[in-house]
Amino acid sequence: MPELPEVETVRRGLEPVMEGARIVKVEQRRPDLRFPFPAGFSERVKGRAITALGRRAKYLLVHLEDGAVLISHLGMSGSFRVEEGGAAVAPGDFHHARSKSEKHDHVVFHLRRDGGGEARVIYNDPRRFGFMLLAEATDLEEHPLLAGLGVEPTGNALDGALLARLFAGKRTPLKSALMDQRVVAGLGNIYVCEALWRAGLSPRRIASTIVTGHGKPTERSNRLAQAVRAVIADAIAAGGSSLKDYVRADGSLGYFQHSFSVYDREGEPCRKEGCSGTVHRIVQGGRSTFYCPVCQR
After folding, report:
1. Which of 188, 189, 203, 254 fits as disulfide partner to 3, beta carbons 3.0 to 4.6 Å?
2. Lowest mean pLDDT among 64-73, 182-191, 219-228
3. By 3-state DSSP, what share of the chain in percent is helix, strand and coil, each rounded to 5?
4. Cα separation of the two ends of the chain
């Protein structure tokens, strides 16, 4: 499942092409993805200009001039491909390679800019766990998918004091607490593992133990908040988590493998300076957790 940095990378890759462009035509090649498309989906967005491209947690938000908002989620295998001027680019860097097979191209947006430039933005999704829905901008915060989401991990709002308030009295492990989208929106398995390693905190540690008895921040909660913000910022700056998959004009592919500190490194030496530990893997909530039991306490 793509995590927040991957989705933000996709948003930044699509923004120069989509923002300010008009949707001339939409090819909807099947009636549903994970959910059915809204009734009359193609006609409802056809002819509308795109005023902004946003993101909330792992959702892409395409704002249209009439106040409608297209909410899109990539699911397990979804990706966008931009075709413009004879070149094709798939924005976003993913831990697992994205599909290039045209048989999985389910939605094609034909765009035109005021200057006359044209482009196609193609949504490809072999497993069809992604989706596209429509909402009104005025009702966005109350939408069932967005209501109740926690703070974004990309700004100063996430600090030790906030974590202290959220974790006070929580008897769940830190890993589970951070994965709760009502606490921090958009955090997933990869970056929770990485943030906990940076903060030197065990994923098994009970969440309330990084808070004082009166619900006040501690050095641990401050350290964790800083680690979460830093790991997300670093991942966004690097263009996503791991696998850079760029389709050149000649159709060839280029790959770039990012190296994590603990994620997917079971049995390998811990990368923290001065630590003699080895990365372990455990299962929490049905998901693999990678951590160093020596320096993460």
Report:
1. 188
2. 182-191
3. 25, 30, 45
4. 28
Domain 160-291, CATH among 1.10.8.50, 3.40.630.30, 1.10.1740.10, 3.90.1170.20: 1.10.8.50
- Domain regions of the chain by residue span: 4-142, 160-291
**Torsion angle, alpha carbons of 8, 17, 247, 91, to 10:** 0
Global pTM reads: 0.86
HSE-CB of 257 using CA atoms within 13 angstroms: 5
pLDDT digits (tens, 9 = 90+) for 160-174: 999 999 999 999 999
Residue 167 near residue 211 (C-beta atoms within 8 A): yes
Give residue-wise pLDDT tens across range 242-282.
Answer: 433 333 333 333 333 456 899 999 999 999 999 999 999 99
- Determine how β-strand 243-247 pairs with β-strand 93-94: antiparallel
Q: Which residues are known to be catalytic?
A: 2-3, 58, 287
Length of the chain: 297
